Amino acid sequence: MPRRLLGLATSALWLVGALVVGWLLWPSSLGGCTTLTIVSGHSMEPTYYTGDLVVSRCGPVDVGDVIVYTPPDVGGARVIHRIVDGNADDGWVVQGDNNDFLDPWNPKGDQILGSAVLHLPQVGKFASILLSPLTWISLLVIALAVVVWPGKPEDEDPETDGQDEDGELAALVADAEREVAEAEPDAESDEPPVTALV
After folding, report:
1. Residue 21 — pLDDT band, cuts 50, 70, 90?
2. What pTM did the predictor assign?
3. Mean pLDDT throughout 181-197?
4. For position 188, what pLDDT does the model report?
5. Is 56 exposed, middle or buried (0-12, 13-18, 19+ CB in 10 A)?
6. How do the domains of the chain map onto residue ranges?
7. Is the pLDDT of residue 129 over 90?
8. Tens digits of per-residue pLDDT, 102-119?
9. Which residues contact 75 (CB under 8 A, 6 or more apart)?
10. 173, 197 contact by CB (below 8 A)
11. Which residues contact 69 (CB under 8 A, 6 or more apart)?
């Protein structure tokens, strides 16, 4: 019984761990609070370069923060620039670190996906697969399968789990001995019966 409880506790810990990681990393495209952005262009150099991965989280922002936002009427494109002025009510004034002009948009509210919390140089070149919702759903299905998959039954005897060559030979010898015991010796012959193992 204690092994079973230990197994259940381990499964529960895996499930809780997967849920916590999923909650922390769940992408905003699926209703979460994390946005993964792969930098493209030169407007944020030397802070970020093309191919860098920037992880941003939703929450309050302020002047000086690097934010990821979606400007209106650009088909869902993302911009990652620094807030240089403004406020949450009227909209933030943003500008790329390498630009000498301000952005034409003043993002506010739902347009802001989050502020940068983690920068991984050049990881974006390999991490584009992480942006796919299918990847996240697949990972959750695999984690769930690991937790729910039935374990080995406790009453199974490892010694009888599969016959090896010695076990097969012992079975053959036992069969041969049984046949000898059942055979009646020939009354006319004084010689005992001969059994050959092949």
Report:
1. confident
2. 0.55
3. 53
4. 52
5. buried
6. 33-128
7. no
8. 999 999 988 999 999 999
9. none
10. yes
11. 78, 79, 81, 94, 105, 107, 111, 112, 113
**What would you measure as the largest C-alpha separation in the chain, in angstroms?**
119
Burial zone of 78 (CB within 10 Å; 0-12 exposed, 13-18 middle, 19+ buried): middle
Q: Please state which architecture CATH assigns to domain 33-128.
A: Ribbon (2.10)
138-174 pLDDT, tens per residue? 888 999 888 888 777 666 555 555 555 566 777 777 7
108 burial class (0-12, 13-18, 19+ CB within 10 angstroms)? middle
104 cis-preceded (ω within 30 degrees of 0)? no
- Look at the block and give the residue holding tokens 């990652």: 80
Between 177 and 48, the higher pLDDT residue: 48
The 3-state secondary structure of the chain reads CHHHHHHHHHHHHHHHHHHHHHHHHCEHHHCCCEEEEECCCCCCCCCCCCCCEEEEECCCCCCCCEEEECCCCCCCCCEEEEEEEEECCCEEEEECCCCCCCCCCCCCHHHEEEEEEEEECCCHHHHHHHHCHHHHHHHHHHHHHHHHCCCCCCCCCCCCCCCCHHHHHHHHHHHHHHHHHHCCCCCCCCCCCCCCCC
